[in-house]
């Protein structure tokens, strides 16, 4: 199927409250434009420089989401235009995002990444750390960021019981932390679910899914 067909097929099955982020990492601008021409306006990338290059080449009504692990020294390159940063896993990073957003007179929306997988390879903070950050005075002083939700990645496995347990942990964490509204924290988004597990993620309460290969085809990292 074409990119357009894949996209429309996935969208036709999504409940209305679920936002689709089209994960376009490693794919050429021509592929992204095919999705754009089929109506897609939210794209997710996992490398800052690649996202900047695509931002420069593409129409300006696109929302760019940074879904990868963020190095503090690179935040400045995307601060002018990024609309949501999914993988925020420490307070120092929030401080840097705030600093760079201020230079552009913007408020940048962020998701706190919670470590829900049992794999060591996945980044993220514990529910307790997230709770402490949200309630801290230090966070309330960052006027140029807003914490709008949580993000998580399940273990890469065929064991759906395990994945379901991990997604449910994120949903429970979200429900608990959502009570803690502050000046710059109001949790609304749960970003969980990828090509292989987004149906299950939605069943477990996700309202933002990040789908790459089911839209654009398998990624080839060798070229
Ligand atoms: C690559 C990536 C995705 C999309 O993965 P697919 O399996 O291709 O849908 C989602 N989230 C993150 C954080 C990613 O890095």
From TrEMBL:
Family of the protein in this entry: Belongs to the pyridoxal phosphate-binding protein YggS/PROSC family.
Entries under PANTHER family matching the protein: PROLINE SYNTHETASE CO-TRANSCRIBED BACTERIAL HOMOLOG PROTEIN, PYRIDOXAL PHOSPHATE HOMEOSTASIS PROTEIN
Tree of life domain: Bacteria
Positions where N6-(pyridoxal phosphate)lysine occurs in the chain: 25
Entry function: Pyridoxal 5'-phosphate (PLP)-binding protein, which is involved in PLP homeostasis.
Gene3D superfamilies: Alanine racemase (3.20.20.10)
Organism listed in the record: Gelatiniphilus marinus
All copies of domain Alanine racemase N-terminal, residue ranges: 2-219
Name under which the protein is recorded: Pyridoxal phosphate homeostasis protein
Keywords, comma-separated and alphabetical: Pyridoxal phosphate
